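Private note to self, pasted from the team thread so I don't lose it. Backbone tokens:
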């Protein structure tokens, strides 16, 4: 589904990414772990077209999007669940859900969203400013599903949330995977990542230094926690 080859990017005179290679298959969840400042969010912003890559290629379903602007990547099927959730505070839950355009016939209906996220159904007329952190995260995910995106880029979806909410986010990710969509999960919470991901990339100083299957990732959780400084 997603093929990233030799991706490099800079911030001024500082190189942030050094020839990154990543791929995500259909119906697969892949995590990207690394310390703060390792380049995780920069990589996501390059993929979605919000930060200019210096070299390398980004392909979605074989289509080269390396020079495409962000709106074309979104219409090609990329959906971004950003780390700050991006909820429009002055709009209600339902207005936030109705906002994005559909990019495929796989777009979730409001009924599907409310069935999967009962809390959003109960809060459909509430404004964004009144939602808890967990409710905002669920709304951010649901809003991307409303577009019909086939690849979800999820940036730290568990950050700052109560364990019961994190568990529900994990269930949602597994439900998304079951539809055949792909997920690239940017996540420092390695314990959470191990419950949802099939494979894991370890990013350090802008380079992929290891690729682990989930069994090995689980076995090495203690080492990874120390390495990541968590």
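Design output:
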């Amino acid at each position: 589904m997603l093929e990233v080859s030799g991706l490099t990017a800079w911030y001024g005179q500082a190189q942030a990414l050094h020839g990154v290679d990543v791929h995500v298959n259909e119906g697969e969840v892949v995590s990207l772990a690394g310390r703060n400042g390792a380049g995780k969010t920069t990589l996501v912003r390059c993929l979605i077209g919000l930060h200019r890559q210096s070299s390398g290629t980004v392909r979605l379903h074989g289509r080269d999007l390396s020079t495409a602007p962000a709106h074309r990547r979104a219409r090609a099927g990329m959906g971004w669940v950003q780390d700050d959730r991006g909820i429009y505070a002055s709009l209600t839950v339902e207005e936030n859900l109705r906002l994005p355009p559909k990019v495929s016939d796989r777009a979730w209906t409001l009924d599907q969203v409310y069935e999967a996220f009962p809390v959003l159904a109960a809060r459909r007329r509430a404004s964004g400013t009144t939602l808890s952190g967990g409710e905002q995260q669920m709304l951010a995910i649901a809003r991307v599903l409303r577009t019909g995106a086939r690849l979800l880029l999820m940036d730290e979806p568990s950050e700052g949330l109560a364990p019961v909410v994190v568990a529900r986010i994990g269930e949602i990710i597994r439900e998304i995977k079951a539809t055949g969509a792909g997920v690239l999960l940017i996540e420092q919470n390695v314990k959470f990542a191990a419950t949802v991901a099939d494979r894991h990339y370890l990013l350090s100083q802008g380079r992929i230094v290891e690729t682990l299957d989930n069994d090995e990732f689980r076995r090495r959780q203690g080492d990874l926690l120390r390495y990541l400084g968590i």
